[in-house]
Amino acid sequence: MTAIPLQPPRRLVEFTLDGAATRVSEGATLLDACRAAGKDVPTLCEGDTLTPKNACRVCVVEVDGARTLAPACSRRAEPGMSVRTDTERTRHSRRVVLELLASSVDMSTTPKAAGRLKEYEAKPERSGPDAARLNEEPRVDNDLYVRDYDKRILCYKCVDACGEQGQNTFAISVAGRGFDARIAVEHDAPLTDSACVYCGNRIEVCPTGALSFKSEFDMRAAGTWDESAQTETTTVCTYCGVGCNLTLHVQDNEIVKVTAPHDNPVTHGNLCLKGRFGYQHVQNRD
To answer: What are residue 13's DSSP bridge partners?
Structure first.
C-alpha cells in the first residue's frame, strides 16, 4: 500500500473578536475569523480564488494598539490581539470609501452596493456633479464579453486572474495614473488585437460588472435580464477530458452565461475559451 503523507495539524490562534474569545487556525485572516463568527464585514476587492491586493479598504477593522485600521482580508490573526469590527472609526472609514467609489464609479451592477451605501449612510452626492467620471461608452469590440470602464474600481482582481494567479497571459494591466488610471491591454488596443485568450476568468472575479458577458450586456440593454428568473445547474464540460465543472445560468430556457464553481478541485473557478463561451451549440435550434 502507498502511504499518504499527512500535513501536520495547524495550531489554533486565540484572540478577542468584538469582545468574544475566538479561536481560528494558524494562518487564518481576520476576515476568515469574522465570517466563521457570522460577522458581516463588507468586501469588494477580496476573492476566494485570489490573493487580496488590499486595494478597496472596505473591509477594515480596528486592532487595539495599532495606529491604522487593518484590512481584514489580508491581516493574519495573531495570539492575544483584540479586534473590533463595528466601531465608529471603522464605520466612518467604510462610509468614506463607499462615497468616493460611488461618486466616481457606476456601481449599479455591483452586488449589495445599494444596501451597503444605505447601511453606512454614505452620500456620494456630496462630491458634487463634477466628480471624476470617465463617462465612456462600453467597449464592445468582440462577440464574447464587454468592458465597461465606468464601472471599474481598480481592485486588480482581473489583472491577477489574467496574470500569475490565473491564466498567465498577462494581457492586461493598469495604465495611467491618478484619475486617468484604468485597466488596459497593451497600447490600449482593441481586445481582438491583444494577447487575451478569451478564457473569461477575469469576468468570473469582477466584483462590479465592469466585465460582463456580451449576452448579459445585451439583455440588460433590452431590459430582459432577470436574475430572479434564472436557474443554475452545475454539470461537467464536454469539450475535453479534464473534467471542469460548469454552472449554467438559464433564463427562459436559454443559457445566458456560464460560470465555474470556485470549490472545484480541478479548476478552482477557472475555465478555458470553450468552457466559458462555447455553449451556443446547445441551444442552436437550426
So the answer is: 24
Cell numbers given for 208 = 462590479
Q: How many CB atoms lie within 10 A of CB 38?
A: 6
Exposed / middle / buried, residue 94 (Cβ in 10 Å: 0-12, 13-18, 19+): buried
Beta strands in 137-177 (DSSP E): 145-147, 172-175
Mean of pLDDT values over 51-66: 91
Judged against a pLDDT cut of 80, whether residue 286 lies above it is answered with: no
With 0-12 CB in 10 A as exposed, 13-18 as middle and 19+ as buried, what is 169? Answer: middle
Alpha carbon separation from 204 to 44, 111, 208, 257 (Å, rounded): 14, 14, 11, 11
**What's the pTM?**
0.85
Domains recognised in the chain with CATH numbers: 10-129 (3.10.20.740), 145-283 (2.20.25.90)
CA-nearest of 214, 206, 172, 229 to 49 is 206
In one-letter notation, the amino acid at residue 84 is R
Is 127 within 8 Å of 179 (Cβ atoms)? no
Helices (H) and strands (E) in the chain, counts: 7, 12
Question: Measuring CA to CA, how many Å separate 271 from each of 46, 204, 215, 262?
Answer: 20, 9, 18, 11
Instruction: Give yes or no for residue 127 having a pLDDT over 90.
Output: no
Whether residue 104 contacts residue 132, with contact meaning beta carbons closer than 8 Å, is answered with yes
Position 219, amino acid: M
